[in-house]
Design a protein that fits this description.
It contains 7 helices and 9 strands, in the order βαβββαβββαβαβααα.
Length: about 220
């Protein structure tokens, strides 16, 4: 499994990056001597004030941005060809991100304004050749509110059919629905997993980032 290297003199940046990497279940290692760079390190993260030491190095003061920049390198590329952001509209909308058929993240936003900020951050954080934003056609009032706020920041989403993306209804999860909207899933593939947690369902239906970097 590839690891992310961290080379920085910025104490705060170091701890923020470590915490973000842990939340993503991505392994990391602190780099002190560039002459002894571990062979399984594919990218190095540093703050803007740190010197450039290798070509495969990302320098930014945003820990979340640094990690999102790093993800393609863990998969053997410097950017995604296609990034798709899926939205399950609602008062607490779901959001999911798929890069080159790999589910990178899926979560629920606490509100519409938070969703818009997350999409702006995601759009800036990842590196990609093309980006598509898809929103389900349900919950018309919240859907239209989200579309209006996205257009205000220069993003025009595709409205797609979200039929069956919330199946089975008794365990409806906004993040799972958003992932299905992003991935174009229109039917629930296996009713036997109806009692599983969000992570179990996503692992069952998608190639997740954790699967991809450990393959």
């Amino acid at each position: 499994m590839k690891r992310v290297g961290i080379y920085t003199h910025n104490f705060r940046f170091y701890h923020e990056v470590v915490n973000v990497l842990k939340s993503w279940h991505i392994k990391s290692v602190s780099i002190d001597n560039i002459d002894h760079l571990p062979s399984d390190v594919s990218i190095i993260l540093s703050s803007n004030k740190d010197e450039k030491i290798v070509e495969a190095q990302i320098r930014t003061d945003s820990a979340s941005e640094a990690v999102r920049w790093a993800i393609p390198f863990l998969l053997g590329k410097d950017r995604f060809s296609s990034l798709i952001i899926g939205i399950d509209p609602g008062p607490k909308p779901g959001i999911a991100v798929i890069g080159d058929d790999i589910l990178l993240e899926a979560f629920e936003a606490p509100g519409i304004d938070s969703l818009i900020r997350s999409i702006a951050t995601i759009s800036k954080g990842y590196r990609y050749s093309s980006r598509t934003v898809r929103i389900g056609d349900g919950d018309v009032p919240n859907r239209d509110s989200i579309i209006g706020k996205l257009k205000a920041i220069g993003i025009v989403p595709e409205v797609v059919d979200e039929t069956n993306t919330s199946q089975p209804h008794k365990i409806h999860d906004n993040a799972v629905s958003a992932a299905r909207i992003a991935g174009g899933v229109t039917s629930f593939p296996n009713p036997k997993i109806q009692n599983y947690r969000r992570r179990d369902i996503l692992d069952h239906e998608f190639t997740t980032l954790q699967k991809a970097i450990t393959a």
